[in-house]
Amino acid sequence: MIEIADLGVAYGSVEALSSFSLQVAEGETVVLTGLSGCGKSTVLRALCGLLPEEATSGGTCVLDGLDTLARPQDLPRHVAYVPQNPAHALFCTTVREEVMAGPLHLGLDDPSGRASAAMSSLGCLALAARSVRELSSGQQQRVAIAAALASGPKVLVMDEPTSYLDRSGMAALRESLEALRKRGTTVLIAEHRLDRLPEVDRVVSMERDPL
Fold first, then answer.
1. How far apart are the C-alpha atoms of 95 and 125, rounded to whole Å?
2. What rounded mean pLDDT belongs to the chain?
3. pLDDT by residue (tens digit) across 61-91?
4. C-beta of residue 111 within 8 angstroms of C-beta of residue 140
5. Which of 42, 55, 94, 175 might form a disulfide with 17, Cβ 3.0–4.6 angstroms?
6. What phi, psi does 47 have (nearest 5°)?
7. Residues 92-145 pLDDT 10s
8. 3: which strand partners?
9. pLDDT tier at 208 (50, 70, 90 boundaries)?
């Protein structure tokens, strides 16, 4: 499902990632951990085709048969991404519009029902009519995760998803991750607070001094 080999990323003369390799099987839940600056976020962005234009990359990064470094147009049909800062993932006016946006863009059936189910699973259905800009950071994080889940991706990629969640938010996230495992969804998470996550298949430590 995920094949990363000798992946390297640089911004000018600054190396952000060097010779990183990882294989993740379909249905596996894997956590990347390591010090800040070790390249966890860079791996996730490369996998989702979201490296900035100014970045140079080498090696291979393949998700569900797609070369993600080439930014294929149909990549969003295969993977959903939740960034570390939830505000960076929210673009619509209301919460419902935000969570429905993915299914609508992909032409999926019953986008409203998908959105309601995803919001309910993250405990944010009561926020559906609220403006995303009026929400707390924790509420925004729940909405960003719900928006990713609504499209039913084959692969879910999350960067520090527990950063702003309170206890009830973390409980909802754990339940959602456990449901995804049962469904066979492949999940890759960058997270250094492993005690906040449910049981996972593997933890991969990225040993490197921070930049």
1. 9
2. 94
3. 999 999 999 999 999 999 999 999 998 999 9
4. no
5. 42
6. -65, -30
7. 999 999 999 999 999 999 999 999 999 999 999 999 999 999 999 999 999 999
8. 23, 62
9. low
Q: In what order do the strands lie in the sheet with 14-24?
A: 14-24, 2-11, 56-63, 66-67
Return d(Cα 196, Cα 209) in angstroms, integer. 24
Write down the number of H helices and E strands in the chain: 5, 9
Query: DSSP assignment, residue 183?
Result: H
- Other C-beta atoms closer than 10 Å to the C-beta of 203 total 13
Tokens coding 44: 């996730």
> Tokens 């990632």 map to which residue?
17
* Domain ranges within the chain, ordered by starting residue: 2-205
pLDDT at 211 over 70: no
Q: Which amino acid is at 4?
A: I
| CB neighbourhood size of 58 (10 A) | 14
Candidate CATH numbers 3.40.50.300, 3.40.190.10, 3.40.720.10, 3.30.565.10; the one for domain 2-205? 3.40.50.300
Written as six digits, the tokens of 145 are 């995760």
Count the Cβ atoms, other than its own, within 10 Å of residue 20: 23
